[in-house]
C-alpha cells in the first residue's frame, strides 16, 4: 500500500523539481552563492516543516476512522459538538459502533467550554462551516491547476532539444497528454495507482541518483544549506525580492494537502512510510543536486532540471518525467473526487453520479461529471496561458489557503477532542500558522499575474456548496414547520379517510421525526392508499461508514391497525449507495419483520412482568403503541439475529432475556396477522411516493435571499441527480406529488 501511494498521493510533490528553482530565480537573480544556498535552504526547511512535521506527524493523526480532508475534520468535530446547521441529529446515532468516542472529560473544563461555545453560538457554527467549505473549494481549485502545470512543465523540456518544437507544439502535446490522463480515471484509483506507482518509484530513484551525481560532480559544498543562517542572508541581501520569491518556493509543497485528503484511499502508516523512506530524502537530494549545478552554471535557471540531467540520460529521463507529470495530477484528481463525495454526503453539494471502482477499498471512487469538467478546464488553462511561468503565478494560492484551514481545524480538534496540553495547542497554530501566513502574503502578490484564477474557481465552488447547504437547511426547517399532527392522523381512523389497497407505499422525506406534509397531499390527491405505509428518511451521519446491521431504525406511527411505520436509513459520508431498489427493499422488509417481532417480544415481556406484579391479564391488550413523536427511534434491527442469535439483539429495555418466538405468537396472535398482512403487501409490490418539490423564498424575504433561493438554488435542484436514480427504481414504481416549500 505504501508503494501504491507513490502513484496517487506523491505525484504532485514529486514533480516539483521540474519548476521550483526556475520560478524562484525568475524573481531573484543569482548574484552570488548566497542566493543559491538561501533558496535551497528555504526549500529544504519548507518541505521539512510543512509536509514532514505538520502533515506526516500531526495532521494525519486527526483522521476520522481512516478518512482525511477538511470534511473529515468537520465530521469529527460534529460528533463531539452539535455544530451541524441541519437539525436532524438524534441521540440514538451515538449508538453506532463507529460513532462511539471518548467524550471530553468533565475534569477538563477547557474542552467543555470549547464545546459549549461552539454549540450555543450560531455564528461560530457558520464560521466553522464556511472554513470547511472554503478549504474544500480550494482543493478543487488546486486540482484544476495541478495537471496543467505538471504536464506542461514536463513537455516544455523538448524546447531547445527538437528543432521547430515551439510553444504551439508544447500546448498541443500537453493537451493530448491531459486527454489521455483524464480518460484513464474511469478505471479507478486502485488500478491507476498500481499502474503509476512503478513509474513514480523510478522517478524518485532518478531524482535521487541525478542529484547525487550533480553534487559529486559540481559542488558538494551545497550541504551548507542545512544551516538556516543562509535563509537570513537570502532575505538580507535581496529584501522585497526575496519575499516575492517565496511564491515560487511554496511550489515545492504543492500536493501536501493531498496526503491528508487521499487518506481514505490508503492508510496513515502507508503514507508515513512512503514519505519518510522515499519521497523526503529523494526530494532533498534532487534540490541539492540542482543547486550544485547552479553553483557552476548560474545562468541555466530557466531550464535547470533538464540542463542538470546528464546528456546520455536526457531521453529516458524526459519520458519518465512526462509520465510522472501526468501521474502528479492523479493526487489532486483523487482528492477532488473524495472532497466532492464527502460534501454530497454532508449536504453541502448537489447530488451527482458517483461510481465506486473497487469492491475491497470503498473510498476509491470516480465522478464522471467532475472528471470531464476538470479536463476541459485544464485544456483551457494550457491553451490560454501557454507558458509554465504564467501558470506558476496562479499556482500555490489555493494550496496555502487549504493548509491554513487545516491548521485551524486541527487546532480545534486538539482543543476539543485530543485535549492536548494548552502550550502545545498554542504552538501548533503559532508555528505552522505563522509560516503559512507568510507564504500566503507572498502568493497573494501574484494575483494580478494569474493568481486570480484558482481564487475564481474556488469562489465558484464555494458559492455552489454554501448555496446548496443554505437552501437544504431552509427546506428542512420548512418541512419541520409543515409536518402533520399525529392527532389529525388518528382522527382519520385506520382507513386514513380513504381506501386502503394491498401494497407498500414508501414515502420519502427528510424528517427524522413527525409526519411529513407530503403525506397530507397524498391523502388529498390519491383515490386510495397502500395497506402498509413506511415513511423513509435517508440520513447521513458524521461517521465514515455505518455497518449494515446498524443501518435501519424503525418506529411505529399510530396504532397497530394503521400499519404505518417510520424508517431512518443511516449512511456514513463514505458509504456506498449503489444497491438497486430490489436489494434495498429486501433489507427494508427484513428489518421491518424483525422490528415487529422485537416489538411483540417487548410487549410480551412487559405484560408478563405486569402479570407478576398485578394479576391482571387484560392490560396486555391495552398497551399503547409508540406514538410518532415520542422518544427516540428503536435500536437497529439488522443485528446478530441475522446470524441466528436472537439473544444478541440490542434493545431499549436493556439486556433482559426475551421469551421465545413461539410463546410470543401464542400470547400475541396479532403478530402473525400483521406479518401475514405485510407479506400480502409485499406480494402486491412497492410504490415510491416522492415530493416533486419547488423551493421558493417568501414574499417578504430580502432580494438577495430571493435571488439565491428562487434562481441559483432552484437551478441546482433542477439539474442535480434524483435520489431514486441511486436505487435504479423503475419509473412505473414512482409516484410524484407536486409541492412548494416556502422558506
UniProtKB/TrEMBL annotation:
Q: Which UniProt keywords apply?
A: Ion transport, Membrane, Potassium, Potassium transport, Transmembrane, Transmembrane helix, Transport
Which segments constitute the K+ potassium transporter C-terminal domain? 502-741
Recorded GO cellular component terms are: membrane
Pfam families to which the protein is assigned, alphabetical: K_trans, K_trans_C
Its main localization is membrane
Q: Does the keyword Phosphoprotein apply?
A: no
Does the keyword Flavoprotein belong to this entry?
no
Q: Which residues form a coiled coil?
A: none
Ranges annotated as spanning the membrane: 36-57, 127-145, 165-184, 196-216, 242-261, 273-293, 313-340, 361-383, 395-416, 423-444, 450-468
User: What membrane topology was assigned to this protein in its record?
Assistant: Multi-pass membrane protein
Task: Identify the residues that the record assigns to the K+ potassium transporter integral membrane domain, covering every copy.
Answer: 2-489
Question: What GO annotations for molecular function exist for this entry?
Answer: potassium ion transmembrane transporter activity
Top-rank lineage group of the source organism: Eukaryota
Q: Which compartments does it reside in?
A: Membrane
The Swiss-Prot or TrEMBL record describes its family as follows: Belongs to the HAK/KUP transporter (TC 2.A.72.3) family.
Described function: Potassium transporter.
Q: What is this protein called?
A: Potassium transporter
Identify the species of origin: Zizania palustris
